[in-house]
Amino acid sequence: MAYEFKDDDVICSCTGVTKKHFLTRIKADNIETLEQAREKTRVNVACGMCVYIVEKLLDVD
User: Fold this and answer.
1) Which parts of the sequence belong to the BFD-like [2Fe-2S]-binding domain (predicted)?
2) What's the rounded Cα separation, in Å, for the pair 15 and 60?
3) What angle, 0 to 180 degrees and rounded to 10, lies between the N-to-C axes of helices 34-41 and 19-28?
4) For 41-54, what is the mean pLDDT?
5) DSSP symbols for 5-61
6) Cα angle vertex 14, ends 55, 39, to 5°?
7) Angle at the Cα of 40 (from 51 to 43), degrees rounded to 5?
8) pTM for the full model?
9) What is the average pLDDT value for the chain, to the nearest integer?
10) Distance (Å, rounded) from C-alpha 34 to C-alpha 19?
11) What is the domain partition of the chain in residue ranges?
12) Residue 61: which pLDDT band, with cuts at 50, 70 and 90?
């Protein structure tokens, strides 16, 4: 599946956010929605190509 990235893999190429950084932030800030993720991590604010990955990672605990 597309969301099975390694921790250091970049999940948002526009902002350079890695999987590990993203997962750390969503847990620390109790992020549950795509809108919250955009605001707090800056993922999915430019081209939108990472939306699928971000949505899948939000579903994974």
Assistant:
1) 10-59
2) 21
3) 110
4) 90
5) --TTSEEETTTTEEHHHHHHHHHHTT--SHHHHHHHH-TTSSS-TTHHHHHHHHH--
6) 55
7) 25
8) 0.84
9) 89
10) 15
11) 10-59
12) very low
Provide Rg for the chain, Cα atoms: 10
The Cα 28–Cα 49 span in angstroms is 24
- What pLDDT sits at residue 1? 45
Other Cβ atoms closer than 10 A to 11: 24
Residue-level pLDDT at 17: 94
Residue owning tokens 């605990």? 61
DSSP state letter for 2: T
- pLDDT for residue 31: 94
